[in-house]
Amino acid sequence: MKILFIANSMEGTLKYRVNLPAKYLKAGVAVETNVMSMQVKIYVNILGRMQSQIKSITDYDVVIFQYANDPDLIFLIKRLNKLGIKTVIDLDDDLINSNPFYPIKKETTEGIIEAIKSVDLVTVTTESLAETYGKYNQVKILPNMIDISEFNKDHENNPVTAGWYSSGIRFAEMNEILSGWIPDGAILYLAGSEIFKKFKHNGILNVVDRFNPADIPQILSYIDIGLVPLSMCKFNNGKSDLKGLEYGAMSIPFIASPTEPYKKLIKHGINGFLAKHGRDWTRYINLLINDSKLRYNMGRQARKVSESRSIKKNINLWEEAYQNHS
Question: What residues pair up with 254 in beta bridges, in sequence order?
Fold first, then answer.
């Protein structure tokens, strides 16, 4: 079976939804994979004028699109379908139900629905996304997995530091949830955008600007208590537990909002804490700052969960999904 991933993002989704599956599928005896970055206009030209190059795509049994809500990408999908090539769209966000902090454009939703209806299979990361997109096509859940070998399970900072990392677009949401609830005097490390300097905190605030997905293990080395602040909405119920897996891979105990994926990932008080109210964040951060044994034990339990979500151990899920649709 020959599989082509067509990448349409340079963010973390590229690593976890394209590069890692491609790497470990390629290790399989009967699977050949390739990753091609998507330049929409180039592919329209290929289909319309450069017939000698279209074979580079049609040589594959399955073509997987990482998002595809542009009319030109949808055109490409439909053309491949006519040529007998099986097409898959992989989605790790809910592009139908908006997060109130950053609404989705109407044309994005309309485009993604058309794309979903056009492919042979939709793959997603969570049950909520399967429910949302399953109204339009058949869906297979392929949960986010990590390459556990990338993460160092032993580290500790002195003094203890709580932290969070994300893109600047999520600042308003984080600020709404955590503002006023980080314990006074705590050391807080925020990575991802200069806008995080606007977060008001009565303690030491260290902010790092943009970083690449490859930098995440290094970013995590500065954090002893991980934070996952998420507003309670349909959109965030569709977001995976990836950040928790990354914290856990570094043996970092973490606190998360109780969205559906985190309620399943976390055994409260064992491998992490669920914080429903503002006062919960204060309480659990203080607990972890002041109890080194609790940090250690909880971090070890979080590591075990992350190890169970190793891409190497679970790549058969991808093999089965694509083989059944090739």
Answer: 226
SS3 319: helix
Nearest of 202, 159, 163 to residue 181 by alpha carbon: 202
Distance of alpha carbon 193 from the chain centroid? 18
CA atoms within 13 A on the CB side of 175: 13
Question: Which residues, in sequence order, are bridge partners of residue 226?
Answer: 163, 254
DSSP per residue, 4-18: EEEE---SHHHIIII
Report the predicted TM-score, pTM, of the whole model to 2 decimal places. Answer: 0.92
Identify the helix (H) or strand (E) that includes residue 271: none
Tell the residue number behind the tokens 């985190």, with chain if given.
262
| Domains of the chain in sequence order | 2-145+310-323 (3.40.50.2000), 148-308 (3.40.50.2000)
The whole-number mean pLDDT for each consecutive block of 10 residues of the chain, a chain of 326 residues, reads 80 87 75 58 41 65 86 86 93 93 90 96 98 97 97 82 95 96 96 96 93 91 97 97 97 98 98 97 98 97 97 94 82
Provide the 8-state DSSP code for 243: H
